[in-house]
Amino acid sequence: MNATLRTLGLAALAVAVWYLCRYANEPHSVRGIEAPATEFSAARAEDTLARILGPERPHPAGTAENVAVRARIVNEFAKLGIDAKPYRAMGCTYGARYGAMECATVTDLIAEVKKGEGKAIVLLAHYDSVPAGPGAADDGSGVVSVLETVRALKARGLPGKHPILAVLTDGEEYGLLGAASFLHNPKLKARVGAVVNVEARGNRGPSLLFQTSDGNGPLIDLYAKNARRYATSSLFVEIYKLLPNDTDLTLFIREGITSFNYAFSENVAHYHTPLDTRANLSRATLQHQGENMLDTATGLGNADFASLKGGNDVYLSILGVALPRIPQWLALPLVLLLFVALAFASAIARERKMRWDQQLLSFAMPPVLLVGCALAGWGLYTITQLVSAMPDPTYAYPVTFRVALAFAVAGITLAVSSMAPPHGLARGAWLWLAGLGVATAAFVPGISPYFLIPGLFASILLLFAARSRNRWLGRFGQIALLAAAGLNLVIWLALVAAGETLMGLKLHPLFTIPAAFGLVAIVPLLAIDPLNPRTRRRFVAVCFLVAVGASAVAGLIPSYSEVAPQRLNLSYVEDHTSSRTLWAADASAPLPDTLRAAAKFSAEPELPYPVAFQKAYVASAGKFLFPAPGATATVAPHRVTIALRGSEHAEQMFLVVPKTAGLKAVGIGDWSVPVKPGNIHSGSTIIGCLTKDCRDATVTLDIGSTKPFDILFGERRFGLPSQGKKLLEARPNTAVPSQLGDGTILFSKLRIED
């Protein structure tokens, strides 16, 4: 009975820690309109957001609604006694990975909050939205965070020694174009001393400090001294480096400017969709985001910008209340030291000499647990996918699959607890954790705190316990093992909780790996007073039966809901190069039956038009509805000048230049951008001019080829023609447009030859 109670008690501890981490991961406080004028109030910010967004329509760059939102923002600054001046200019960015260049004439808002000489603190957000959604969170929350921060700073008398600029950029959603146009102006760029950027990739969750400029040691110190609730990790920085995502701050960081980047990312199902509304934006999240901006700006107020450059730190927030951090260069020697300390502690705590096979199994336990949990996660997810026949079956309802993962991990943890004596298992667990700390500190330092912090705590406790009565297996020793395991569990399960937030679009089965890291130190405690073999086998069998059953049930649950809908854009395409018209429906998931019944869509998806990065199901659309877009080319040696002639309804224009052209640079307006053909797609370069004034744009191409080639060109309009009404009605309530939304694409080609 004691063994059963111990097992159930340790299981209850793991569950309790999980819910603690989930709770601690979320912001909870909200300041009302009665909050002191010197403080940030989410209620006041939300009221401002309501006035700015008005009818809550999409307001991408270059649209009439974008102009209306900008005017309302200018009015909010005027209420604060601040003149927000528009800065209209061309902005361009180029992404070599996708071979895509985006340009547009955008209008930033620049407000002189606190005048003065020298470098300024820039409070940065963007006010445009994607065409598919009203952008209440992304980035209306950022706009009102800036405005409410400015109001609070004015109430404090604008303390600090530095000027303050509020910069609200346009065209961020089209490729960071507002930030590009701002930094393209040498005088504006020269004014920037430090930047605090606020963004959103969802509408709930904590405001994460997920990126800083390089040499972040002084920046993390400033954050630690000023933030009220911590939500950060050097691991987030490592993850963000691997992602294709960018924000406006990316361009400022490239310029070597001191920078802080905050964002929240929970409930990503609403991101860049019509569901990104004020009603769905968490006030607690808005409060945390705004406090981060206000507190960081306050910390920067009296800081010497030159002193904010230093070495990098590795760091980790614990339950929002602690932020241990060390210089990155110190991580490796420190983790080497704790490895030696743990090895020494395990040597002097040894109860008896173990057989060679027991020693081998002791050190084999951690990798067996990790591999077993990873395989279980993959296997269960495969079952769920096979049952559902959907690519992301847990998108709308993740709870059932989360239960499956939990029981699988529990069963594997219990199974490996019989591999070796408890002392050997403790030694294997902690030496493995310390060893991985050494490896990560050497090669991926941002991850090292997850091993270093619990390892340091464990080394101190276990060294003392090694000299106590009965060593690690005595009362004090077990308390030491439990305390060390508890901290390790908190750190790793907090990462699992944060991982779900960061991954967003998919409940990734590899979340079982950090869970296994957290549970590895629990295994020796299960072995001290073990279940008898028969009972243990029954427990393990039940865990796996529940896991498999829950994963199958998860596959039977709908993958999408009205709250977490499928992303499904519809397009009408006219290909004037082949006299083909078609309807296209995104193929990231199987096509809903209602849509398949509305048109004869293809069984297999294809790329429906030349600027599509995602395959779609297509159906014939009958006769042409619109005239072909126009363009003329002037050819000179190694240079082609193309004059675009879009229709009055064109919202965007595009060119597709093949790899055979040997494209070297693209010129538009006062921008000349070098390009490198050879992206992950066809090798072609896609040039997008993304606002209405691009209808008559002129683009110059510096080329290397002297042979003839074809350039595809065209226009994009928002929405479908009236003939698409049947398809719009057939799209179910569990599907919504996203990103660019529904559209009409017309394209033709130009033959380029001398």
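Above is the first protein from milestone M3; the second protein from the same milestone is given next.
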Amino acid sequence: MKYLFRGGTVVSGRGTRRADVLVEDEKILRVARSITAPEAAVIDVEGQLLLPGFIDAHTHFDLDVCSTTTADDFFSGSRAALRGGTTTVVDFACPNKGETLHQGLELWHRKADGNCCCDYGFHMTIDDWNPGIEAEIDDMYAAGISSFKMYMTYPAMMIGDEAMYHALKKLKEKGGICGVHCENSGVIDALIAEKKAAGEMGVGSHPRTRPDFLEAEAVSRLLRIAQAVDIPVVIVHLTNEAALREVEAARKRGQRVYVETCPQYLVLEDSVYDAPEYSMAARYVCAPPIRKERDQQALWTALRKGEIQTVSTDHCSFTLEQKDAGRGDFTKIPGGLPGVENRGELLYTYGVTTRKISLATMCRVLAEMELAGCRVDKGALVSFGEMLSEKAAALEQNIYNMAGEEFNINSPKQLGEILFGKLGLPHGKKTKTGWSTNADVLEKLRYEAPIVGAVLEYRQYAKLKSTYADGLLKAMDPDGRVRTSFQMTVTATGRLSSTEPNLQNIPTRTDLGSEIRRMFIPAEGCVLVDADYSQIELRLLAHMAGDEAMIAAFRSGGDFHAETAAKVFHVAPDQVTHEMRRQAKAVNFGIVYGISAFSLSQDIGVSVAEAKAYMEAYFATFPGVRTYMDAIVERAREQGYVETLFHRRRDLPELKSSNFNLRSFGERVALNMPIQGTAADIMKLAMVAVRKRLRQELPEARLVLQVHDELIVECPEAQAETAAALLKEEMENVVSLSVPLTADAHWGRNWLEAKG
């Protein structure tokens, strides 16, 4: 059955917009400003918010604890979740002390399977560590469990520091992640003993035996253990400002730390434990306990700034009768609160409407959990920046020595006076601001004097340091990932553009610049899979021009540039030299962009006459291309626009201009836009197809970046070959042309390695 939700306000992690939503069988088919779907049942939601289904990553249904069982089983708990907008819960499979992980997982499957009203999954609790448990970790992964939990408190569940170290090492090996309940159990037990000795056994003693600094101490200790292992961890149900500061310190050290808090810590404060009526105070007993108002404010601020990644509930419900077991002894009160039904409305009421957080932030922490982004190796980037600074400093001194004086190398005016005034190097015209010292000018002078090459090298180091080494560090989020913004409508051809930061402009032309790609790394246990279209614009030119010779060349599957060189230079294929192929390649790509003979001569270092002869030989080899180019420009003059194969238009008023330069620009656009624009259209179609296949077949994999003709996917290492095949298949078959589209896919442990 299809449903059309009409006229609502659609909320995502990036903001809100008015839109219709078409849904079929629990899947969103389309989100657009206005959707027509006669076959769908229409639901008018004007004035309403439409949010993605929430995910609660921390629930405890049907849990035996404190000599009783939680009030909600999977049926009642999941019904409550759905009523509150939560469509997925992740519960904790908890083996009893001495049981195997297999036994714990089997028990939780018996509890949940066939009894859950919403989607569900499991984390696995590790409450012991021995060779048997370690061996079972591999089996857990095979069963689909990749996230775990450990406790630093509760005698029946807690695990010591040494065992935790070994467990984290094993999880790092598998690429897993662990959430940890952080409280200092030893000191808590001592404080409880003191309260018992003093006869202070009321509810008010509960928070006093579990103070905020003992949670902060345990958080600090966990993070140092994680630092020793070099693994990211999750702090579950963090409650207070002191613990947040420990997380902040770890992140400054370069650690990846994810933080969860819960609604009760955002909307309640510890005076609830001082209620005169026992049942009013006991209902709020949980561990860690409710904190003070200042901690509330610190948590809201951290949520707003993205320092807390998710709000889960730690849903662990008990009836008032069950809570009554602790009358006269607060240690016997079952600890836990409900929340799976009310989490969304609590965050909206106390967070969004009071402007503590935005609606988009609420959506991210409840539904999307984390936007993908690209993970960057912070340590490697820092080291790379330091190396660049050292090289730039050494070059700076060398340049001063060659100039015979110190000056501002970054000042075009001062540099021009040194190069052209003092050293007398050949120069162009002097402007009002001084001599031109741009890259083109200096490249022509590179071999005139050693100082020029040193300045160009210095500029390279300075650019890499400021734009990439420093720039990426500034753009890095606390989780170690860099998130760019993609724009659909900024470029004239329709290509996606990337800003803040621009991840589509990572340098590739030099070995040193290419090293930046080495800093882009996948999550633990994952790889990056990179798929790149091969010569897509030339293939589109062959298809759109209908040139039989060019079509045949691509269908043969050979080296197109080499085949072009053989035809243009009238030699046998095995006689094509590297230089011939280079020049043929420049002509091939230059034709696509409407290059002139003069520009081609500059690119390949030949005379204008030679460049013109190469182009004439090219058009003689592929006559259909010349015919197409003439026709497309003429049609553009008549129509006033050009369009892609998918009929996306670009108006070209420049073609009717009386200004020669403007008309020439319009002609180049008329040649280029249909080809480059169609390539952009195809890439967007491929992205949609790839994403759909990944969600269906490899849900752990995700698209993380698009760079022109290139898609990058992050996936578990075991899925690399499958993901590569999927990318190649979807990219090559997304459209049908007269020539084959080909895509090459490789994978590696960083972006540079994945380029193959």
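Note on the second protein: The first helix runs from residue 74 to 83.
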